UniProtKB/TrEMBL annotation:
Belongs to the 'phage' integrase family. GO terms for biological process: DNA integration; DNA recombination. It comes from Ectobacillus ponti. This is Site-specific integrase. Gene3D superfamilies: 1.10.150.130, Intergrase catalytic core. Keywords: DNA integration, DNA recombination, DNA-binding. PROSITE patterns: CB (PS51900), TYR_RECOMBINASE (PS51898). Residues 65-146 form the Core-binding (CB) domain. Residues 167-362 form the Tyr recombinase domain. Signal peptide: none annotated. InterPro entries: AP2-like_int_N, CB, DNA_brk_join_enz, Integrase-like_cat_sf, Integrase_catalytic, Integrase_recombinase_N, Integrase_SAM-like_N, Tyrosine_recombinase_XerCD.
Length: 382
């Protein structure tokens, strides 16, 4: 591969031309023209750099592709290879946070300062942890653009995301849980609330639970699938640890047996109109429950119970917190939640560990020294 420098008549700039071999189909000689500098010496430097790029395979053709256009293509390619719920998250992040801010910038002109400006703008709308997710998606988009030879380097990797604060965990105490269960007992979704707070299941796991995965004799349920965010399709749990068996409380087992009778009666009444998906939590016609409708119903239940608002997902945090406060080993809590390892459980629920440490020290003090007063508490002189 070689090249030469030329200058057009009356032109201010030099140009350099590189021979890139012959077309394999036609056999014709192929050349590429590049704009150089105003001096021959500077243009020679540019020619040498371009030859090195071509030889090393780092050269990319100039194109007008924008970030928004390529992000849309990236989403199309991703749709068939990821879960529906994950795809919905990717699409919403691209459409809400990437395309509106940097979508019109050409891929080859995207610079680190554009990414920093994006972070600054998003900080006015969303929390740092969400910005980190947007950054991760944008980084994956640009990585693919590099693979396809559209850009030479991924500038997203040159910029750090804003430091994310550890999210605050919201949960209810045992009295608040009792209140919610008492006020929602006649609700169609009472069994969903009970399952979440007594097993730690996620919303998709609750809405995807089938009767075939519930062993009413042994009092154990197996979490095998989840209802996707589109509320129409089911998928396996994301991880091996997510596929787990959970021992049921006696009250949960009793409520499940009662609920199964209720579902059987509905199925009988609906007749041919019933669409049996074998779901524990379903509509009156047996169909999967829409995620949005379920969240709306949950908010109304919390309002009716006059309780501090928490998300339905926070019943999972409530389950874990109540267990840990009862002295249940974190490894058992981790297994019930389907965490990949116990460290995730410890890091997530570290808010209650100081209190548990103090209680453990009290108990050990009483056991070894038969004292009912802790050392750092004031003791009477008499």
């Amino acid at each position: 591969m070689k090249g030469h420098i030329t200058k057009k008549k009356r032109g201010e700039y030099y140009y350099f031309v590189i021979d890139i071999g012959r077309d394999p189909e036609t056999g014709k000689r192929r050349q590429r023209w590049f704009k150089g500098a105003t001096t021959k010496k500077e243009t020679q430097v540019l020619l040498t750099q371009k030859l090195m790029e071509l030889q090393e395979g780092t050269y990319v053709e100039k194109n007008q592709m924008t970030v928004g256009a390529f992000a849309s293509q990236w989403l199309v390619g991703k749709k068939s290879s990821i879960r529906d719920g994950t795809y919905s998250v990717y699409r919403s992040y691209v459409n809400l946070y990437i395309t509106p801010y940097i979508g019109d910038i050409k891929m080859q002109e995207l610079a680190p300062q554009h990414i920093q400006q994006l972070h600054t703008a998003l900080l006015e709308r969303i929390v740092p942890s969400t910005i980190a997710k947007v950054h991760k998606i944008l980084r994956a988009i640009m990585d693919e653009a590099m693979t396809f030879g559209i850009i030479r380097k991924n500038v997203v990797r040159l910029v750090q995301t804003p430091k994310a604060q550890k999210p605050k965990i919201s949960y209810w105490n045992e009295e608040q849980v009792r209140t919610l269960l008492a006020t929602s007992q006649k609700s169609r979704f009472y069994i969903a609330y009970l399952l979440a707070v007594t097993t730690g299941m996620r919303v998709g796991e609750v809405l995807g639970l089938r009767w075939q995965d519930v062993d009413l004799e042994r009092g154990v349920l197996s979490i095998m699938q989840t209802l996707s965010q589109n509320s129409t399709t089911f998928s396996e749990t994301k991880t091996e640890s997510g596929r787990r068996s959970v021992t049921l409380l006696n009250e949960t087992l009793r409520a499940l047996k009662e609920h199964r009778i209720f579902i059987a009666k509905e199925k009988l009444r609906a007749g041919d109109a019933y669409r049996d998906h074998d779901l524990v939590v379903c509509t009156a016609l047996g169909k999967p429950v829409n995620h949005t409708n379920f969240r709306d119903r949950w908010k109304k239940e919390v309002l009716k119970a006059d309780l501090p608002h928490i998300r339905f997902h926070d019943l999972r945090h409530t389950h874990a917190t109540l267990l840990l406060k009862q002295g249940v080993h974190p490894k058992i809590v981790s297994e019930r939640l389907g965490h990949a390892n116990v460290n995730i459980t410890l890091n997530t629920y570290s808010h209650i560990l100081p209190g548990l440490q103090e209680e453990a020290a009290r108990n050990l003090n009483d056991l070894l020294f038969h004292q009912t007063t802790f050392p750092n508490e004031k003791q009477s002189k008499f």
